[in-house]
Design goal:
Helix content is 83%, strand content 0%. The chain has 95 residues and is an all-alpha fold. Helix 3 packs antiparallel against helix 4.
């Protein structure tokens, strides 16, 4: 299974293009991005670039870590489910 995942994600030279195409399909994301940058420029103008840059870097680090932990939690749930299914099944699960 690890080999399949590695092939899917690590050896896929087009994954970034596929992700960008997927993201481009969501009009709410484009609108949220535009509104974010408009507000970000306004706040940077009021607070000054250095303070705003610090805020944005810290917010980004926080949101990235939060996202990572949600993802890891979901992986743990999936692993628990697959292991539970494997215990109930006399034959290995197909990959």
């Amino acid at each position: 299974m690890n080999t399949r995942l590695e092939t899917l994600f690590c050896e896929n030279l087009h994954i970034e293009e596929e992700i960008n195409a997927f993201l481009a399909q969501d009009p709410k994301l484009a609108q949220a991005e535009q509104e974010f940058y408009e507000t970000a420029h306004e706040i940077a103008g009021l607070a000054g670039f250095e303070l705003y840059d610090l805020f944005e870097r810290r917010l980004g680090a926080y949101l990235n870590r939060l996202s990572d932990l949600y993802y890891l939690f979901g992986l743990g749930l999936r692993q628990d489910i697959l292991q539970g299914m494997d215990r109930q099944s006399p034959t290995p699960l197909p990959l």
